Amino acid sequence: MPELYISTDVETDGPIPGPHSMLSFGSAAYTADKQLIATFSANLHTLEGASAHPATAQWWATQPEAWAACRQNLQEPETAMRAYVAWLKGLKGKPVFVAYPAGFDFLFVYWYLMRFVGESPFSHSALDMKTYAMALLKTGYRDSTKRHMPRDWFDPHPHTHVALDDAIEQGALFCNMLRANLGR
Asked: Could you tell me which InterPro entries the record lists for this protein (predicted)?
């Protein structure tokens, strides 16, 4: 089975899961040759007993459209995560979690998967786009930010802070990075 790159973005109300909640997540499944084959997204009810981090709440106050987008059609976390696992298992390929930065997005997705479903189709692994860029650019980690990446790695997708929009944008970026590395 081919690898499928599951570009994933999360929107949260704080820096870590548990005390804070994942508000929304979106995933875009890409083939190595940049075919977007499927998407998944869900907006979630907050965790019982969790609260927004003050700095994150301040940031959300500056993003009214993204906030409104992630607070509509809310699902219980268990329902959404079970549907997500079923979606991942229904894809015709081995899912590879990809994010920018994976350390943040994977933290939330993995925690929610383990808490509400008890398994992760990704195992314990995530591919970090910034680390991949570091290797491709032969630069230090702190110098491998998006502003230092070649412009031809970027497609004209907007970064809206709506999880699915950003997952699609970052998935295209990853596929362009993959093409640059493998000559595809």
From this structure: RNaseH-like_sf, RNaseH_sf
Single out the residue of 26, 9, 7 nearest to residue 132, CA to CA: 7
pLDDT in tens, 93-116: 999 999 999 999 999 999 999 999
Question: SS3 for 38?
Answer: strand
Closest CA to 24 of 44, 38, 7: 44
Beta strand pairing call for 3-12 and 22-30: antiparallel
Residue among 80, 76, 85, 15 nearest 46 (CA)? 76
Q: Are strands 127-128 and 94-99 parallel, antiparallel or unpaired?
A: parallel
DSSP summary character for residue 28 = E
Global pTM reads: 0.95
Supply 132's token pair: 């991949």
Contacts of 92 (CB under 8 A, 6+ apart): 1, 4
Domains with residue ranges and CATH for the chain: 3-182 (3.30.420.10)
pLDDT surpasses 80 at 51: yes
**Edge-to-edge strands, sheet with 22-30:** 74-75, 36-44, 22-30, 3-12, 94-99, 127-128
Asked whether 100 and 130 are in contact (CB, 8 A), the reply is: yes
